[in-house]
Amino acid sequence: MIQQLVITLGPWSWWILGLILLAAELAAPGVFLIWVGLAAMVVGAASLLLWDQAAWSWQVQLMLFAALAVAITLAGRRVFARTDGESDEPLLNRRGESLVGRTATLAEPIREGRGRIRLDDTWWSVSGPDLPAGMRVRVAAWTGNELIVEPVAG
Fold first, then answer.
1. Structural contact between residues 117 and 137, judged by C-beta atoms closer than 8 angstroms
2. Over the Cα atoms of the chain, what is R_g?
């Protein structure tokens, strides 16, 4: 059945395969099927020109498709690879680190090295020297689960 369909459609079978792969990329994005789909489209374009040639057998087409799929995938990954360039928001996903240097007022006193502050819309556990509630503190560091604060001079 598939062989009869390919014979009937001729070179357009590669175009249909390419479009199916591109549509599958939309359904399951991962930026892989797009390259394989493009390889199928290139083989389809070559098939439009070479379909009646004796040397253009299905084996040659399949080998060209496999080679192009690998080559286009490698080239696409290289061209669209992530760069480690500078971001305009380097602390975007490291919120605690972005708070270092900010000042706040202690909402709860620091007793035995532990207290709480409110920055923006979040309550943060803090550690530092024992200080009364209402004292201005500066965030000196972030340990991953709490902020380390120090009193603001003045």
1. yes
2. 31
State mean pLDDT over 88-116. 82
Domains and CATH numbers, the chain: 2-79 (no CATH), 95-151 (2.40.50.140)
The two structure tokens encoding residue 113: 């090295």
- Alpha carbon distances (Å) from 8 to 3, 11, 56, 61: 9, 9, 16, 16
| Distant-in-sequence, close-in-space partners of 5: CB < 8 Å, separation ≥ 6 | 13
pLDDT confidence of residue 138: 94
If we measure between CA atoms, which residue out of 114, 117, 120, 123 comes closest to residue 152? 117
